Amino acid sequence: MSTTEADTVNDTAGRWGQRPGTREGWLERAQDVAALLATDAVARDRAGATPHAEVRLLKESGLVTLLGPVEHGGGGQTWSTAYEVIREVAKGDGSIGQLLGYHYLWAWAVRLVGTDAQIDAVERLYTESDLFFGGAVNPRDSDVVITDEGDEIVYTGRKSFSTGSKVSDLTVLEGVLEGTDKHIFAIVPSDQEAIVYGDDWDNLGQRLTESGSVEINGVRVPWASAAGYVDKEFQPLVYNTLNTPTIQLVFANFYLGIAQGALDAATSYTKEKTRAWPFGGDDKDSVTEEFYVLDAYGDLQAKLWAAEALVDRAGERIEGLLHAERASVTAEQRGAAAVLIAAAKERIVATGLEIATKIFEVTGARATSNSTGLDIYWRNLRTHSLHDPVAYKRVEVGRYTLLGEIPEPTWYT
Question: Does the pTM exceed 0.90?
Answer without folding.
Answer: yes
